[in-house]
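Researcher: Hi, I'm a grad student and pretty new to this. My advisor asked me to get structures for two proteins we've been looking at. I'm not sure of the right format, so I'll just paste the first sequence and hope you can take it from there.
Model: That works fine. Here's the first sequence with its structure tokens right after it:
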Amino acid sequence: MKKIFWLAQAAVFYALTLIAALLPAAITYRAGALAGLLIPRLIPKRQAIAVDNIRQALPFMKAHPLWNSPCDDAQELARETFKNLGRSLMEVCRLYHGRGEDVINSIELRGREHYESARAKGKGLIFLTGHCGNWELVALAFSSLFGEGMSVVARRQNNPYLNRMVERMRMRYNSTVIYKQGALKGILATLKKGQLIGMLADQAVFREDGALIEVMGRTAWASKAPVVIAQKSGAPLLPTFIHREGQRQVITFYPEHNFSGDMSDEGIQRETQALSRYVENYVVAHPTQWYWVHRRWKRAGEISDAA
């Protein structure tokens, strides 16, 4: 019975993404925004989480020097967040079905010299990012932009048919997945070959996998994996983010992060905090382009996390 359900789910996914991909490119931006507005109606709990997260983060963001948003209403910021999610989904659908050249061609690169400097070291390269903008596009577009693919760390889909479909899509763009379970060995092997790894490091983790830090003025658990992997491998770590400017995408490479070399618990915590600041700065500068719908502060003692 489960197999039938999984097959049906994969078929529906394929059909919906194909319909989205076949829409004329000229209306993708507007259609994506409309699709995004449907998300809160389908999963209202996620809208409530996004609004609550934004509301609690607003005092910190408004006091930050990078804050430049004309809007400080949590409801409106959440609404724009879902519209951007819808646009990103529409773009990924086009890429999934091989119709996304216009999406890739819309990308502007900033800070390319930081990428080239880190790449020249020949030790592999770790891209540190978060669920920011169209984060999927970074890995999928990399082969077209630089002639080499990127491996990303991700969770395996419960539905094996859906998982296989996503894998095939990634392979089309010379992008591969290293699954989280037992990922350390695969990541280190990839870096040892001088290849590229993309890591999303902005979600809550369990105590045994993380360090307790501050995120936008609130206590949160953060993955210490990027710190440990960078130190073990010796590979440069490059904070890299994508954001949307109208119908154009901008990928920004920041300078390589310099580690202190202190691998004590306190040293790892300090470095984890430092890496989190890159994501934090992004969120403040682009408050409607982060994935507010997850409970970033759960398991860290926040009362609201129980909801």
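Researcher: Oh nice, that was easy. Here's the second one.
Model: And its structure:
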Amino acid sequence: MKKTTTAALILILSVMLVIAGCGNSNSNSKNTENKSKDNETQKVEAVSGASEASYTPYDQLKDKYDIIIVGAGGAGMSAALEAKAKGLNPVILEKMPVAGGNTTKSSSGMNASATKFQKEQGIEDSNDLFYDQTLKGGHDTNDKEMLRFFVDNSASAIDWLDSIGIRLNNITITGGMKEKRTHRPEDGSAVGQYLVKGLVKNLQEKGIPLFVNADVKEITQKDGKVNGVKVIFNQADEKVITAAAVVVTTGGFGSNKEMISEVRPDLEGYVTTNQIGSTGDGIKMIEKVGGTTVDMDQIQVHPTVQQEKSYLIGEAVRGEGALLISSKGTRFTNELDTRDKVTAAINTLPEKTAFLVFDSGVKSRVKAIEQYEKMGFVIQGDSIEALAKEMNVPADKLKATLDSWNSAVKAKSDTEFGRTTGMDNDLSGAPYYAIKIGPGVHYTMGGVKINTNTEVLNKDGKPITGLFAAGEVTGGLHGENRIGGNSVAEIIIFGRQAGIKSAEFVKAQ
């Protein structure tokens, strides 16, 4: 009976999670309401991403560790696992009530080139192609040394995940890419929760302590070397914990309206897809100990966000064949162009919103759509005409648009907008579906400056002794525009590197 009750509770909490979303409002009363809902969402995500029992009890806290990792997203957990594999004693401190951070919200997948799974499926790819396409997507502003390390270590990151029970062998494509290199879970589901669950499981198995509600406020130094942190537990108990090295993996600042408005006033009023903990804490702390930043004004707006719930509709939907349709029932852009260009195209429409339109085939290939359905985002019609009625767009225009697209797929030539990817299947499988979307703040490309050893650099380009960082808290890798699927790759590739290099640093002391 107890098990039945528990299962029911988990089901209810899961439903609460998908309803809560990540709201955003201008009124003070709504802000308070949304904050309360978002705090509840974080607790619920403990069920969906990692069980409450995953976290280390407060009474097991020690005063000293080999390595302190600040932030329990994908980068932080990867760093901890690699540091532990090197024989060291790391700890993870996470300010939110659950592990996962923005990683939990990741949808489309993880980009990697020349992987064993691509080879098994006959997909021809290379690190050079991945490098060139990412550089082009970033408008040739990416840190080239960081980018080279990134692409050259992407396949080994896929292998490493596979070796610890996290298999990403279902491959699709995202905007700005020419080859299928976006790796997803085997069933095609969203990558985020699957990844977080697998990483937390590995932390448990390795006995790595992970404390939640642990809000790090300051990085401490002694004799010019980083030597620990000041942290407040459960909003009450302040502790000073020492370590030979600190790794900061706190994510970006996509939920800090003040920081966004300061560097990009044009984005004021945009919804955000970020979890509420993404407030730039790590950037501020690193600046206080001499770190410097890069590309802080480069903030990515994702083109396909469900506006009422600020919920990201993953790029895999377009990658598997969906079209973007205006209120006139017609296409208006290459759906798989880079995110900045697709966003700009949507913003030229009078409503600054559009519809993602797809068929039953796309729905079967993108498991995340089941989640969108549960959240009430998906409009359905048994025919194109029925869907057009639900969308309130001209039925004749929508039918002509889909007929034209299906002909383009058959001819492998999109003469209208030059789309060349995501054309493996036409849109002829009833029923038909649509999701209304618009742009939202999604990712902060800027952050603290690091090198390929993940050492944090000062204004003179010199490493700050004992301080490392990885993930969205850092800047430079993506330049002016991030390619979809590259953020998950970044947190794993550079998270691992931070664990390895911080461990090597500690051992050398």
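Researcher: Is there anything I should tell my advisor about the second?
Model: You could mention this: Residues 1-53 have pLDDT under 50 and may be disordered.
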